[in-house]
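Final report, results section. Input specification for complex C-07:
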Amino acid sequence: MKRTLGEIARHLGGTLVGDEGLEVQGVNALDLAGPEEISFYSDPRYRRALEKTRAGALITAERLDDFRGAQIVVDNPGLAYTLAAGLFAPAVPRFPGVSHDAFVHESATLGEGVSIYPRAYVGAGAEIGDEVILFPGVFVGDRVRIGAGSVLYPNVTVLGGCLLGRNVILHAGTVVGADGFGFVRDGARSVKVPQLGIVQIDDDCEIGANSCIDRAAFGKTWIRRGVKTDNLVQVGHNVVIGEDTIIVAQAGISGSVKVGREAIIGGQVGIRDHVEIGDRVMIASQSGVAKSIPEGRIVSGSPTMPHRVWLKTTGLIPRLPRLFDRLRTLEKRVETLEQDMRER
Amino acid sequence: MKRTLGEIARHLGGTLVGDEGLEVQGVNALDLAGPEEISFYSDPRYRRALEKTRAGALITAERLDDFRGAQIVVDNPGLAYTLAAGLFAPAVPRFPGVSHDAFVHESATLGEGVSIYPRAYVGAGAEIGDEVILFPGVFVGDRVRIGAGSVLYPNVTVLGGCLLGRNVILHAGTVVGADGFGFVRDGARSVKVPQLGIVQIDDDCEIGANSCIDRAAFGKTWIRRGVKTDNLVQVGHNVVIGEDTIIVAQAGISGSVKVGREAIIGGQVGIRDHVEIGDRVMIASQSGVAKSIPEGRIVSGSPTMPHRVWLKTTGLIPRLPRLFDRLRTLEKRVETLEQDMRER
Amino acid sequence: MKRTLGEIARHLGGTLVGDEGLEVQGVNALDLAGPEEISFYSDPRYRRALEKTRAGALITAERLDDFRGAQIVVDNPGLAYTLAAGLFAPAVPRFPGVSHDAFVHESATLGEGVSIYPRAYVGAGAEIGDEVILFPGVFVGDRVRIGAGSVLYPNVTVLGGCLLGRNVILHAGTVVGADGFGFVRDGARSVKVPQLGIVQIDDDCEIGANSCIDRAAFGKTWIRRGVKTDNLVQVGHNVVIGEDTIIVAQAGISGSVKVGREAIIGGQVGIRDHVEIGDRVMIASQSGVAKSIPEGRIVSGSPTMPHRVWLKTTGLIPRLPRLFDRLRTLEKRVETLEQDMRER
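Structure output:
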């Protein structure tokens, strides 16, 4: 598939410097792009790649004098480039219609244009929206509802009663709606607390591969519109994640945590149960959150502290041995002084 | 399904204050329960929810004067509530019998009342106990034995030769019996150590979603009765976990570790290989365990220290910059003193 | 299956002390081995097990006077033992041929002697090499190529276009080729960056269960020959892992990281995006890597420091409360001295 630079510039709302009839056949990184591809430049870290690039055209925030090819100048090159890539990206491959090797319960409802691969399973009373794609090995439990345009990649499990909005993407191996981790001790033994709620994932969410989002004990675990998670993320029962929040790989969020909107939770972060994370909070990777965090804060460490404090302290840890030495030396000097003082 | 308060009070062995013929149709959290539901109160954190609850009845440890509905007074409201919830909890949905879309090897043995969904696989010589449920996508390897009443959720894998006891629950996507991680270096290359053992999971265990329990190099990796793990937990080869121990999400237990009974291993904890964790040890989340821990200890940190020491130290970390300043100031003052002393 | 000691000694290139016609029927650990089994001894930690072992023969680095059975003396007992175990290890169980319950696209190419279990899925244009085994629930996407001798365990997902070399092992539940985690903000909203590249896994790699290796944004995420990963490992888009590197369970490697050859990355380690890890670097478990690490370094901590520094500092953390006390005491003593000095 080829597109002209004029077509692309219009799609991006950018200013074209160069031949608008020139055709490119794809997007690529600076160091990989060839003369028939368009790339982008915005980060000075890639200055050297820019000098050597063979790209035929470039998306950029300001006109670059030392680049000879065509340029499309835009406000936000990263975003523009992403939109350009979308013009060329291959569609998710669809099985034509409903495979006769899939299991679809007779009481399930299927929308227009659904693609159900062999070996998918759709339970009783499930409702599958228009254009939904269910890959092989997908399990859709009884009474699950999936909104239009959603894609469930291979071996995804969505257990009974859970709700997915429109344009939700669940990557391979992810489990939605397993029982929350709730037990009550009866002496030494653990008695299972029935997990009676569901998971609700709203429109435009994307959940990474092999992640787990547990069903609520009551009511719902709620992933709100536009949340994106990376792989191997754990979300406990009754958690609420606010709109447009981002959760990086291997983070774990304990039961009943509430996270605000547009927050960023770093990789391998752990958040203890029942705390509240405000809107736009940023939590550095590997942090351990033991207390609620007000809106807009940036925190690091385990347990967390303000990020600017963490920046000051973290370099001091390797200097602790020297600190102990200095303190010991000082104690001796003071002792000598005290002795001298007494002897006068 | 409705149940009378009298019926529930008898089931819980509690004292009913109110009309024993009153019917409720479910359990629910204080803030969600309606007039036809029963809730519970035991934690003062929920005092405000108690004041506003619309619940028709309450399970509680002592009679509450300011609650107008019926009350069932019990010793342990959390446990009682859990048992009450069990009265209303829907059963795990069963496929009627053995689906003709499942693969069951001719040499496998099936107990009474098994439920084998479409797309499950049962290998040669496997023995499936009475009332077992195998969801779609479950793989049961050759010679695997599964005790009565166990439930394997979708896309669970149990590899050849592994043994599951009675009433074991494996949540979706969990892998039991993958090869332990064992290699010997031959120069730079890694030579695989054959993993010849099995995994044995005893009665009443519950393993969270997308977890991994590796087979032993020899003998067995052994999960003993009543162990409960959360999601995304890693258990290495030849590990033994004692009865009724609880392991929270994303914890990782390296090879040949022995954990005692009734221990609690927090979320994202890492335990190095070959150490021993005593009975009833509690390990705080994100801890890193590098040494064995005697019975009954409570530890935190990476590497771990006694929890009470950790409580004292952890608040000091953010004060390190100030500590370094104070030390530097003190050094100058001592230098001044020494100079003064010499000059006299 | 039985083998004579003579046969085993020749296979290992070792020196036999004892009856070369003696037959053993397997290998086992010192404490589990019986008279018809061969074990090995090399680590003094197992001295007591050696004294009590009932093993009929032993692989050892030097002749042991206090062991009465036969001995095979070799340079590297661990490696020799592993090779001996390989003589007895059962082969991976093969489904005979291609199950008619598998889905194989008509345009896929199958090599000689492939074993494709029921419920496996092979997409359009896929090329499956000789002797490859695809277990139930495996998904092989369109145009995927898998080299000869590779084994994909149950419920593994390999998405479209990815390349696996020869003798690659993917353990159960692992996902290769899910989209990398890339978004660009458009105001608060996250716009998905199309992930147009692939994953390439070279010969002799082994990837643990329920791991995730994401496809590149462009070009490829590249796992080079002989890499071994444990379970639940996360590898982000565009990462390159050098030959023979080892990655322990639950480690996470962010996008565009380059790891050299023969490195060892400990359990639960996190590595931030775009850093470079040199050849033969060793990273202790739970470390957090925020900066590039030159060849051959050994590091620990979060953030990382040289391991020898970490060894010195880590024991000091629990002594911080006492340090603060000593500093306070010293400040008072200095104040007293200063006062004394002024009063003279």
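The mean pLDDT of chain A is 95. Chain A has five helices and 39 strands. This concludes the modelling results for the funded period.
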